[in-house]
Structure formats: structure tokens, C-alpha cells
Design goal:
Oligomer: single chain
Shape: globular
Largest sheet: 7 strands, mixed
Radius of gyration: 31 Å
Helix content: 25-40%
Number of strands: 38
Structural class: alpha/beta
């Protein structure tokens, strides 16, 4: 008999979807447990921690072992509550596939979509199990339609591998269709390939509590899951750190290649980059609370290893690479208060153990206030954290109400200068700081030739920029969405040491921000709000008062649903208020929505009261040397002492006067032309003709000269316009063509430039396209790129200098447009404008027919 392959299968769901009940059913049917436990009975096999049983939710990811006909399976049960998303995400990096559980009565929730996006990020095959189908209100066809609309069109009912299912599966990939047409069927290997490539998401329906449909799911997992084993060379991925009841440190990992035995000497690098060599003591295979020691962990198995003291979640060992940090990050920070007699500094090492196990806690010590803070996702995780500290260390701590974790970014280009020259030391660095689109993070580059500054010094400077979390000058919050480019630097042949450039770099970044316009960013939630119809007015009013944006309410069974975006500072604590006024019927789902400019920046900055000049740990001042001694120079005087020329001043002086005038007066058009050519190809129309060389510059009023540029969300406009919506239901191509004709006529009349964007995000293999249709630009985004992202990028590029409007009723795009400084128009408003324009064109046509010598309108042009 062939040896069974090892599979790691994760089970994920939104809270209360029936995930733990399904896990119990799978363990029971495979003979692992004699009786299935229940969450409400507090006797489930995997939710065995005291806190989990008392609260009835999964908090920690745990594993169970069972066997199928061809597979030895490690089942990972992950937390379903949004507050523990990072714990669930860390488990995804070591899975062969995932089982996503959907409640048959609740359908796809906001957190379900968050999980789906994470599964896409880690490129995991997914099997979907719709639970609670035995309850009233569960509709198989309705749920399947919702899965296809909200998650993927590749979600297909696989309860029966019938001819109908085979045909639907064949539609998921071109090669599958060709094979199906040739042979009349798809083999099991074909289906496995489709599932592994995320071209097919098998769906099963049933009840974990009543064991309905669970056997079919198990059979499919055994038959169709493809192992991600990588070969004979040793490799492992660490996904979790914990401690056993004796306090021994456990490194949970999946063996991705080769095998691991006790007493093996492992070489690895710590999170700080230090080399380490340690011997493995024990190799354990856990199932629930219990474990067995093994002489060898094989490829595909998940084990816990003792003896390693500096491993960390996401770490790759042997041939394996590290994994990116989880996307799920906290937006709230809490200060910890200790009971009388406890010194915070003495307790800090104990709390750091918890951060080893959950790196996203970011437990920090503030030297000035002598306080400890912790970053948590929300109220539930805060309560759990307090309980864990009590259970582990017998400490009765308390947390304050939490503080918003702001971010800062730069609002304009600036040059930062750092000089560090105490006696027998020397380094000077000039950095160019530039704003980036939201969500870009920190980007680093060098524009210095190696003949001006040695490559090794440049590499060191790049490392120094990346190693520090740079703090802004408004509130002392971390900086993001900024590009830092090395533009010049200088070392001394004799006196420069590595640490000198570190000091110069830190001071340069800070000095540049001190003299620049800084923008305070605050976190937003994407929210989904379900409540009774008679409460919808109250909810809409509340969201408006929060400065939130939302879509039109939609029916969801007997309830109404509102989705949108709102500041965390306003939305935090709204769940309790909702439960109160909806008499317990309302439900609020929240997930991080990114950072956007704070609408109350002045008020928040004043309230926090941060003084950047008194922050000596993040100084913007430089140190120069004269008469054999170093002296401090304030940040705003550094340019008077610097040894290298200013990069920005030098660039400005190099421009001829004619170029300066042209840049000031007409560079906007040329910059826009470059953007348009990059997006839509060479411009052939006369109005885009390049200026003649040596042509005398024309002084113009730039405010009057600005043109109108309009970016239209194509599908949003079609489905907001009843006439086009009806046409689209019959033939979408006709609706698109009709809209393009209307907009072409509109631009011919108004002389506006217009880019029409259609979403090609869910069209497999779509490369995207850019083209001109008469006098408008038309873009189809490529597979994997949403129209939202494309419009935001284009609006950001053009909106800095032009009178730009974004036409959409998509509130996320409209909010991004607002933050990019461009105008926003709803689809409804623009439709009214188009109607008015078409009426004016009709009048002109009537006039031209009455008097043929007057100007005619033809093909959208006058």
C-alpha cells in the first residue's frame, strides 16, 4: 500500500458560522473522537482553552490529526472573530488548502470577504462549506448566487460530480473547456488542477451539527487537494510561538521539504538579523491538548519544536524563505495600568513573552512616561489580553479606553539634510522626501552615482533608512506613504565610521519633515451595517455625523444593509449604541479600511500636544565641527553650514529661464500629456501637439487655462442609468457602446478631456487595454486590477495640478478622489448633466438644419 501523503488543511469562517461544529463533525466521522463536542456545551475538542470555552469563540489556532483514505491530515482550526484576524492569517502561510465555512442563514459577511482576500493573497485553494442548512431561511440557490457574486464566479456546487457540474467546471478555464469538448469529461486530476490554480472553488451544503454533507466534503478533500511539498532539501516555515504548561518555548512549524529529527543542529537568523545555531530538543506532534514525541517530522507535517530560543512567526528555516507580515494590523493602542507595588519596567520582560507569541501586540515602553502600551484590534481582544496576563503571570492589570494610532505623511516634496561631525567622525547625507499614494508605505531609492559616493556607503545608508520607524513632526506618529531617495552624500577617507551615516540619515529624514507640509492620517473602517428597516434613518444620520460615506441601503432578507467607510475614532464603540437602539437586532461588521487624511487635523494635533523639537531621541538638528570640537546646529540653520550643495536648489538653478517660465506657466499640460500617453498611447489629435522648439514662451493665466478632465467609472454609470441598465441586462457590449457614444458627444460639446474606465478585475487572463474612441480615452483594467485602484491612481497623478472630476457613486472611489484633491460627482448628478448636454446638442442640430450656413455638429464634434 502506498504511503499516505501529509496535508495541512485550515478551517476559517466569520464568527458564529459553525466552524467549530464542522471541525467536531470531521473529527468524529474520521474516528478521531468518540463523541462530537459542542460550543454551547463547552466540550469541543479544539476549543480547549478556558477562555475559549467560557466565551464560546476560538481565540488560538490549534491543530488536530486525522486520517483519510489517501491522506494524513493536520486540521488547523483558526479564530473567527475579527479581533484575532492576525492569528488566523499567520496560519494561512503553511496550508495546502482552506475550508471556508459560510452560515446558510447569514450568508457572506464583511469578515468573510476579508478572509477571502487573505486567501487570495496567499494563493490558497479553497473548498466552501455552507453550514446550518437545516435551519429555516437557508436557501441553497440564493447562497450559491451570493457566493458567485461576492466571492468568485468560480464557486460551483460540487455535491454531485454530474455532467452539469463538469460543464460548469469546464467553463472556468480555456484549457479545461478544450479538454471537455474533446473527451466529454474532466478527470479527477483535471479538477485537482483547476482547484489548485484557484479556477474552481467547490461548494458543499449541509450541517455540521447533524453531520449532513460533511462526508462529501471529506471525500473531496482526500481526492482533490494537491500537496505543496517542495522536495528532499530541508525547509520549514514557523507560523506560531507558544509555551506549554511547564513554560517551555514551542516553535510551531510546517516541514515544507525533507525532514526534521531531534538533536538536529539548526542554523538561522533572528528577527534582528543575528546568526544563531541551536540544537532541536524535542519534536512534538500535537492533536488538541495532547502531543506525542516523534523521531522524525516528515514533509508536510506540522510539528512543535523545543530548544529554539529566537525563532519568530513567519520565519523560514533551511531552504524556506520568510513570509510577509500579516495585513491585519491594529489601529488602537492601550496603556496598561498595574496594581500598586508592581514596577512596569520589571513586568515588561514577561509581557514581551506575549509579543513573541503575537508580534502584532507591539508592546512598547515609553521612557519618558514610564508607561507600557499594547496594540490591540478591539474590545474583545483587549478583554482576552487582560485575562491572559492574569492566567500567565497572576497580574491584575487594567487598560485605558484606547487611543487612535495615527500616521503621518508628507504633503510636498522636500529635501532633508543631516550632518554628523563630532571630533574624528564625519558623514553628510541629503535625502529627497516625496509623497506617495495612500497605502504605498515607505519606499527607498538612490540617485547617486557610485563615483560620487562608494557603493558600500550607499548600501549602508539604504539600510539605515529602512531600519528605523521614522516619526512625523505633527504628533510623533509613524510616517508612511513617502519615498525617500538618497540624492547626495559625503564620507571622510579617514574619520567616517558606519554609525556616522546612521546618525546623519536619522537627522536628514527628520530635518526634511520639519520644514515640509505634513499631513495627519487617521484610520478608517470599512463597515457593514444590518438592521431593521424602521431604524435605517437613524443609522444614516449617525454615519453622516461621523463624517462617514456609505452606499445606498440594500434589502437583505427582512433586514436592510448599509456598507461604507468611516473614521475609527467615530465608529469605535458604535456596536453597543446599535444594539441599544435596534433592540439587539442590529449587527455591525468592521474591518480595517486604510488610512486617510484626518478631517480634524488641527484639533487632534493640539490635543496630543507633541513638540518635535523637544524629542531628543528623534532630533532634526545636526552636529558640525570647528576648532577641534563638535557643536550643535538647529534644523532650520543646517543649510547655512552644510558641506554639499542643496539638491533642490541646484536643480532649480540648472534650468534655463525660458524653461522655468514654461514650467511655471504650462508644464501642467505637458505633464498631463505624458500621463495620458503612458496610459492610452501616443496622442494623435492636434490639441495635444508638442510645443515648437525655441518658441517664445507665452505668459498665460494658469487658473483660466486649466482644462476640465473627467474620469468616469464606466460600469457604475451604466448601472446607475435606468436606460443603460436595461440595455446591459440584454447585451452589455451594446450598453458600453451606447455610453461611449453619449460621452463622445458630450466631450465634443464641452471640450472636456475624458477617461472612461471599465473594470476587468475578474476577467481571468485579461491583459487590460487602453485606446481612444473618437475624442475620449477608454481603459479596461487588467485581471487583478480593480477600476477603483486604476481611477485612484489616475486621479492622484492628474489631480495635483488639474481641474479633475471623478464620476462615480462608489463611495470608496469618491472618498479617494476627495483626498486626492479632485472634484467628485455622483453618477446621478452626471446623468442629469448628460441629459442637459444632449438637449443643447439637439437644439444646435435643429438650428443647423434650419440654417445650413451655421456651424454643424457631427460625430460629437463642432
Amino acid at each position: 500500500m502506498d504511503k499516505k501523503r501529509n496535508l495541512a488543511i485550515g478551517i476559517l469562517a466569520h464568527v458564529d458560522a459553525g466552524k467549530t461544529t464542522l471541525s467536531e463533525a470531521m473529527l468524529y466521522l474520521t474516528g478521531k473522537i468518540k463523541n462530537p463536542g459542542r460550543v454551547d456545551h463547552r466540550d469541543s475538542f479544539l476549543d480547549n482553552h478556558e477562555l475559549e470555552r467560557s466565551r464560546g469563540i476560538t481565540i488560538f489556532s490549534k491543530q488536530a490529526l486525522f486520517e483519510l483514505e489517501n491522506s494524513a491530515v493536520t486540521l488547523l482550526d483558526t479564530p473567527g472573530h475579527a479581533d484575532f484576524s492576525a492569528e488566523a492569517e499567520r496560519s494561512l502561510q503553511i496550508l495546502d488548502c482552506a475550508v471556508l465555512v459560510i452560515s446558510g442563514t447569514d450568508g457572506v459577511q464583511a469578515h468573510t470577504e476579508t478572509i477571502w482576500n487573505l486567501l487570495r493573497r496567499y494563493d490558497l485553494p479553497v473548498f466552501i462549506f455552507v453550514s446550518k442548512m437545516d435551519l429555516p431561511g437557508a436557501d441553497r440557490d440564493k447562497i450559491l448566487s451570493e457566493l458567485q457574486n461576492k466571492l468568485s464566479e468560480y464557486c460551483q456546487n460540487m455535491e454531485q460530480n454530474s455532467a452539469e457540474f463538469q460543464e460548469r467546471a469546464a467553463l472556468c478555464a480555456e484549457w479545461a473547456m478544450e479538454k471537455y469538448l474533446d473527451s466529454g469529461k474532466l478527470s479527477d486530476d483535471d479538477l485537482s488542477e483547476l482547484i489548485a490554480d484557484r479556477k474552481l472553488f467547490p461548494c458543499f451544503f449541509g450541517s455540521g451539527l447533524k453531520m449532513h454533507g460533511v462526508s462529501k466534503l471529506l471525500e473531496a478533500l482526500d481526492k482533490y487537494v494537491v500537496s505543496k511539498a517542495k522536495g528532499k532539501e530541508f525547509g520549514a516555515k514557523v507560523y506560531k510561538i507558544s509555551r506549554d504548561f511547564k513554560g517551555d518555548r514551542l516553535s510551531f512549524m510546517k516541514i515544507t521539504g525533507g525532514s526534521l529529527k531531534p538533536r538536529t543542529l539548526l542554523k538561522y537568523k533572528t528577527a534582528k538579523g543575528e546568526s544563531k545555531e541551536e540544537k532541536v530538543n524535542q519534536v512534538r506532534l500535537y492533536s488538541g491538548e495532547k502531543f506525542t514525541q516523534t523521531d522524525e517530522a516528515l514533509t508536510g507535517q506540522i510539528c512543535a519544536v523545543t530548544g529554539l530560543t529566537d525563532t519568530y512567526p513567519g520565519q523560514g528555516l533551511g531552504a524556506e524563505c520568510d513570509t510577509e507580515e500579516p495585513l491585519s494590523r491594529s489601529v488602537l493602542s492601550y496603556r496598561i495600568t498595574f496594581p500598586n507595588g508592581e514596577e512596569p519596567a520589571a513586568v515588561l520582560p514577561k509581557l514581551k513573552q506575549l509579543q513573541e507569541e503575537d508580534p502584532e501586540l507591539n508592546i512598547a515602553w515609553n521612557e519618558k512616561t514610564k508607561k507600557i502600551s499594547v496594540e490591540l484590534m478591539g474590545k474583545v481582544q483587549a478583554e482576552i489580553f487582560v485575562s491572559i496576563v492574569k492566567n500567565r503571570f497572576d497580574l491584575d492589570i487594567s487598560l485605558d479606553s484606547g487611543h487612535i494610532m495615527y500616521r503621518e505623511t508628507i504633503g510636498e516634496r522636500a529635501e532633508g539634510i543631516g550632518h554628523f561631525e563630532p571630533l574624528r567622525h564625519y558623514a553628510e547625507v541629503h535625502l529627497l522626501l516625496e509623497p506617495l499614494p495612500r497605502g504605498s508605505g515607505i519606499q527607498i531609492a538612490s540617485a547617486v552615482p557610485e563615483d560620487e559616493l562608494d557603493r558600500n556607503w550607499q548600501r549602508l545608508i539604504m539600510t539605515n533608512i529602512a531600519e528605523k520607524q521614522h516619526l512625523g513632526t505633527l504628533t510623533g506618529s509613524p510616517v508612511t506613504d513617502m519615498k525617500i531617495s538618497l540624492v547626495s552624500g559625503k564620507a571622510h577617507l579617514k574619520h567616517t565610521e558606519g554609525g556616522d551615516f546612521r546618525q546623519a540619515v536619522y537627522r536628514a529624514v527628520r530635518q526634511g519633515m520639519m520644514g515640509a507640509k505634513m499631513i495627519l492620517l487617521e484610520p478608517y473602517y470599512n463597515f457593514s451595517l444590518r438592521l431593521p428597516p424602521d431604524q435605517i434613518g437613524r443609522a444614516i444620520n449617525d454615519i453622516r455625523l461621523m463624517n462617514g460615506e456609505f452606499s445606498s441601503p440594500e434589502e437583505c432578507g427582512e433586514m436592510m444593509e448599509i456598507t461604507g467607510l468611516a473614521p475609527v475614532s467615530a465608529m469605535n464603540g458604535y456596536s453597543e449604541e446599535l444594539l441599544s437602539y435596534s433592540h439587539g437586532r442590529g449587527r455591525l461588521s468592521l474591518k480595517p479600511g486604510g488610512y486617510f487624511p484626518c478631517k480634524k487635523q488641527e484639533e487632534v494635533v493640539k490635543q496630543i500636544g507633541y513638540d518635535p523639537e523637544s524629542d531628543t531621541e528623534n532630533t532634526a538638528d545636526s552636529v558640525f565641527c570647528a576648532h577641534g570640537a563638535g557643536f550643535n546646529v538647529k534644523w532650520d540653520k543646517v543649510k547655512d553650514y552644510m558641506h554639499l550643495d542643496s539638491f533642490l536648489k541646484e536643480k532649480a538653478e540648472q534650468e534655463p529661464q525660458s524653461v522655468k517660465i514654461r514650467r511655471q506657466m504650462s508644464i501642467d499640460d505637458r505633464e498631463l500629456e505624458e500621463i495620458m500617453e503612458r496610459e492610452f498611447g501616443p496622442i494623435k489629435r492636434p490639441q495635444y501637439k508638442n510645443p515648437v522648439r525655441n518658441e517664445a514662451p507665452t505668459v498665460v493665466n494658469t487658473a483660466q487655462a486649466q482644462k476640465n478632465y473627467i474620469i468616469v467609472d464606466g460600469y457604475n454609470l451604466i448601472f446607475s442609468w435606468e436606460e443603460l441598465k436595461t440595455l446591459a441586462s440584454e447585451n452589455l457590449d451594446l450598453a458600453r457602446g451606447r455610453l461611449m457614444d453619449i460621452l463622445s458627444n458630450y466631450c465634443g460639446y464641452t471640450k472636456a478631456e475624458l477617461a472612461l474606465v471599465f473594470d476587468g478585475f475578474r476577467t481571468p487572463g485579461n491583459p487590460g487595454s487602453r485606446e481612444d474612441y473618437h475624442n475620449i480615452h477608454v481603459a479596461f483594467t487588467k485581471d487583478g486590477e480593480t477600476a477603483d485602484a486604476y481611477i485612484e491612481r489616475l486621479a492622484y497623478q492628474i489631480g495635483r495640478n488639474y481641474r479633475v472630476r471623478v464620476v462615480t457613486s462608489d463611495n470608496l472611489i469618491r472618498l479617494s478622489a476627495l483626498h486626492s484633491g479632485v472634484l467628485r460627482t455622483s453618477s446621478k448628478e452626471f446623468i442629469a448633466e448628460l441629459h442637459w448636454t444632449m438637449e443643447q446638442i439637439e437644439k444646435l442640430l435643429e438650428m443647423s438644419n434650419q440654417n445650413p450656413h451655421k456651424t454643424k455638429v457631427k460625430d460629437g464634434k463642432r
